[in-house]
Design a protein that fits this description.
This protein has 24 helices and 35 strands. It is α+β, with helices and mostly antiparallel strands.
Length: 968
């Protein structure tokens, strides 16, 4: 926001030249050229000055502005001529007004203005140069509709020029026909690029251009253009640090504002601003306390905030007095937090300190500094304040202020004192968000890190811990969009780099995309549940570190190696990559979270005095580590045939060792569960006798070779979609069936796939349920990502990948229904097979929200807002969407059943949920009467929800006595 003066301009017709023949000069003879006069008297202040031109009438620009206000603006206003705001006229080195390549348009506009305005002002109000400049000012200002100038905190009244903030990738700044053309980058894909054009001297020029951690291109003539027009280009990181400054005066700060900041320290402006900032902060703290549970500390804190506000209204005279008031308010504020409980899970396995069960005081590990948090809530506050500091720092630089010049915080070198000052009234908003998270969330010890110094750190969920950029996460990133976002492809799909995998953001962006999804998955995972994550060798090592951090290294069950390809491979590399990896983690330290492979028992083909048995494995250890020297304690005698002592002897005649210890070996011998077989040299081989005929269970192996390949997955999709390949590289159904069988027991287990793709998981669950008569359920989540324009899916009419997944589930169920119709039902299940699914989409709420109004709003506008909320349902609301929204807010699951019934002419929705055992009755009609209420036959256990406008006092009183009533 550079300091500018505002000049009211009025378009004045060139009446002195009206009627002059085109192409001819005035008949009036020109004044002969003479030397400049030695001195002139200013027409405003009568001061004597040395003129630079023969026609100079004013000693300074300020006198000229004063004459302009009194002689031009006033007359134009009286005549009804439109008055406009623009920059004051300037002259070049020769004393003439600047001209540009739009002079021809200016002449045309002058002619048009004569016809529209007429001779409203005196003909000698402006000379020809002034007239041309005014016409050009009107031309460039005509499309703009900016408000009148307003005073700012650090300077006089000015025309506000806003900063232009550029973010994203692919930013382009270039010069075209003398104009600055700025093309903003994009953060999501697909996205229309925003392009703006600025002309020299235009009133819509930005005060500064902020390049916020983006990439792109800039030309050398842009640097010259920015320098001539005094528009600085400032490059910032996402943390708000200044990287470089181009154009302007070479500094990221506005010189006038910076000088005003220094003056405000002593002229009272800074004291007034500090008082207002702390007053706003204390008011916000009082609002935060009102959201807490009512306790004596909370009530005392609200009283203290009110007292501090009254002290600030009295007008503190020093900064120290303001800091003292703020400190007393903060102590009472955070003391009220201590009674708020914190919920934890998994603390039996990982104990936490006793003080973590409640919110502690706002203090750090090292005393005064709150940055070294020793409590989880303080760590969360530090994280929120850090994000707030970044945003305030960026906005401070964008407005041209020096962030190191503050008032409440000491101005040490390099300290962002002004940023910390401006953060004060915004901190309560961060506090309220943290309090909401604490009330609604159940934490786990893995949510926080404790450093070697004892400091508590919050796990980063949607940001990088290094100096990399913050990820623009829209939860919809196909590979092509990711490549465009990271600058490896252009919008037409052409590669911009020869080796995209070596991009500096290649791994960082992928990890930043995966972290919040996996963190959320851990919150949804049941304690006895497991999660499988498929990945290739490009990110396998990074994903393992990520999973260890989120789920804990002790919960890693191993890595399954899936042979995803078979047959020949290309010769472009040294090795043929024919496998992928599936990382497996459990929710808690549960040793039985995975099922086992069942192996049929062998026949009991032998008989002794105890009964039938079969020969088991040798009790003589063989192979590696089977010598006596390897385990000397495992070499001992046991009773053998004919009361002889039998030692473990290897097949080569050397001394060996037993597999079991002395107690277990003697127990087997005493029970008669060993079999001795004598060698030719007189030594014995000892076998264990197996007497059980039950099948054996053994763990799965990590090598997956019999679960299909990607080619099998593509073949399945083609068979379902009549030979069309509507999805690239789908997983084989056999692989998903194996993983689901390993992680579930078949009894009402829920399988969640939040990268559903073509919904292979849904098909695997349906087929597996039919094979083992299970009742597993599935949830497949897929954003409506557009299918490629030239893909088979788009040609087949599937606009998004979600459409492909929904159609696949329909076709699988249709085929299974056909198979059931042509085969005998030999199952003994009491419940019929469920071959149906429900599709839910995110839409705008059907309930109207409160639109915040600005401070100082008239009572009429408040009343208008309240009238709109008499019926909170938005125009065009759909009954079923309202039913779903109400049911979810009431705690029902998404699988509830809604039946419509007509009672006494009124539509009643009976909503029941078999999962939770809850039920509600909903009526969305405009009116209810007593006869309808009686016909409903409600009881005290019933929940009845209706619209508030449908009730009068009598009906409300009757419903409140009959049931649990809620209104919308």
């Amino acid at each position: 926001m550079q300091d500018q003066r505002t000049v009211p301009l009025q378009v004045v017709p060139d009446s002195t030249r009206r009627g002059r023949p085109k192409g001819k000069r005035d008949s009036k003879p020109r004044t002969p050229r003479t030397s400049l006069p030695q001195s002139n008297a200013c027409e405003v202040c009568t001061k004597t000055f040395k003129p630079k031109t023969r026609t100079q009438r004013f000693c300074s620009q300020s006198c000229y502005h004063s004459w302009w206000q009194t002689n031009v603006r006033a007359k134009a206003t009286d005549s009804g001529v439109r008055v406009m705001i623009a920059d004051p006229p300037t002259r070049d080195a020769s004393g003439r007004f600047r001209s540009d390549n739009l002079e021809r348009r200016s002449r045309a506009l002058r002619r048009q203005s004569r016809l529209q305005i007429g001779a409203a002002a005196e003909p000698d109000a402006l000379d020809d140069g002034d007239d041309a400049w005014a016409i050009r000012a009107e031309y460039w200002a005509a499309p703009q509709h900016e408000p009148a100038p307003r005073p700012t905190a650090f300077g006089p009244i000015r025309v506000e020029r806003k900063a232009l903030v550029l973010n994203g990738h692919g930013v382009q700044i270039r010069i075209q026909n003398g104009a600055l053309v700025v093309r903003n980058g994009f953060t999501h894909y697909p996205q229309r690029n925003d392009e703006q054009r600025f002309f020299p001297g235009a009133r819509n020029l930005p005060s500064r251009i902020i390049a916020l951690d983006n990439d792109g291109s800039i030309t050398f003539d842009v640097i010259q253009w920015l320098g001539r027009n005094k528009v600085p280009l400032i490059a910032l990181t996402w943390q708000g640090d200044v990287v470089s400054v181009i154009g302007g005066d070479g500094t990221p700060y506005d010189a006038d504002l910076r000088r005003a900041q220094h003056e405000a320290i002593t002229n009272g402006v800074g004291l007034q601003l500090s008082t207002q900032l702390i007053a706003d902060k204390i008011s916000g703290c009082r609002e935060s306390l009102l959201t807490l549970w009512q306790t004596p500390a909370r009530d005392a804190g609200i009283v203290r905030q009110s007292q501090c506000l009254r002290e600030l209204e009295a007008g503190p005279t020093t900064y120290e007095h303001i800091r003292l008031i703020e400190a007393r308010a903060a102590l009472a504020y955070f003391t009220a937090w201590q009674e708020q409980p914190i919920r934890w899970k998994g603390i039996g396995r990982k104990p936490i300190p006793a003080e973590w069960h409640r919110i502690g005081l706002r203090q750090g590990l090292l005393g005064a500094s709150n940055r070294y948090a020793s409590h989880p809530v303080n760590a969360m506050l530090n994280y929120g304040y850090a994000l707030l500091e970044t945003q305030v720092r960026i906005q401070t630089v964008a407005h041209g202020l020096d962030p190191t010049i503050g008032y409440l915080h000491a101005n040490h070198p390099g300290r962002l004192a002004l940023v910390y000052d401006l953060m004060e009234p915004l901190r309560p908003e961060v506090d309220r968000y943290v309090l909401e998270v604490v009330r609604e969330h159940t934490f786990a010890p893995n949510d926080f890190l404790i450093t070697a110094r004892g400091m508590v750190r919050l796990h980063p969920q949607t940001y990088n811990t290094g100096n990399d950029f913050i990820y623009r996460d829209d939860y919809a990133h196909p590979l092509d969009a990711y490549l465009v976002l990271t600058g490896q492809k252009d919008l037409d799909g052409n590669l911009l780099t020869s080796n995209p995998e070596t991009s500096g953001r290649y791994h960082s962006s992928w990890l930043s995309m995966m972290y919040p999804r996996l963190f959320l998955a851990r919150q949804l995972l049941r304690e006895d549940g497991v999660i499988f994550v498929s990945v290739d060798d490009h990110e396998e090592h990074d994903l393992r570190l990520l999973m260890n951090e989120i789920f804990g290294e002790e919960n890693s069950l191993g890595t399954l190696v899936w042979q995803s390809k078979k047959g020949g491979g290309g010769d472009s590399g040294n090795l043929v990559q024919d496998n992928e990896y599936v990382l497996c983690y459990r929710g808690t330290n549960n040793p039985h979270c995975l099922s086992r492979v069942e192996i049929a028992a062998e026949e009991l083909d032998r008989v002794d005095v105890k009964g039938p048995y079969r020969r088991g494995r040798e009790l003589n250890k063989w192979g590696s580590g089977s010598r006596r020297d390897d385990r000397p304690t495992m070499y001992f005698p046991i009773p053998g045939p004919d009361s002889n002592s039998v030692y473990p002897i290897r097949n080569d005649g050397s001394e060996g060792r037993w597999r079991k210890g002395l107690k277990k070996m003697l127990a087997l011998v005493n029970r008669g569960d060993v079999e001795f077989e004598q060698r030719p040299d007189g030594s014995y081989i000892v076998y264990e006798k197996i007497r059980s005929a039950d099948p054996r269970l053994k763990p799965y192996r990590t090598w997956l070779t019999d679960v299909g390949t990607t080619a099998d997955g593509s073949k399945t999709v083609k068979e379902l979609f009549d030979g069309r390949s509507v999805y690239d590289y789908p997983k084989p159904v056999a692989l998903l069936k194996r993983l689901i069988f390993m992680g579930t027991n078949g009894d009402d287990d829920l399988v969640l796939d939040f990268f559903a793709g073509s919904c292979t998981t849904a098909q695997a669950v349906l087929e597996l349920n039919r094979e083992d008569e299970g009742s597993r359920r599935f949830i497949c989540v897929q954003v409506p990502e557009p299918s490629p324009l030239k893909s088979e899916a788009r040609k087949a009419g599937y606009g998004t990948l979600a459409d492909v997944g929904k159609e696949r589930i329909r076709r699988v169920m249709f085929r299974m229904n056909q198979d059931s119709a042509s085969a005998l039902d030999l199952r003994e299940s009491d419940e019929p097979e469920d071959l149906g699914f429900r599709v839910l989409k995110l839409v705008q709420s059907n309930l109207r929200g409160w639109n915040a109004v600005a401070a100082g709003t008239s009572p009429t506008e408040y009343a208008s807002q309240l009238e709109m909320l008499e019926d909170p349902l938005v125009p065009g609301w759909m009954p079923l969407q309202v039913i779903y929204e109400i049911a979810i807010k009431e705690g029902l699951s998404l699988t509830f059943a809604a039946e419509e019934a007509i009672v006494d002419g009124v539509t009643i929705w009976n909503v029941t949920d078999d999962q939770t055992g809850q039920g509600i009755k909903i009526c969305l009609d405009d009116a209810l009467c007593l006869d309808t209420v009686r016909a409903l036959d409600l009881t005290k256990e019933d929940r009845f929800i209706c619209r508030d406008i449908a009730l009068d006092d009598t009906v409300t009183a009757n419903l409140a006595l009959q049931c649990h009533l809620k209104t919308i």
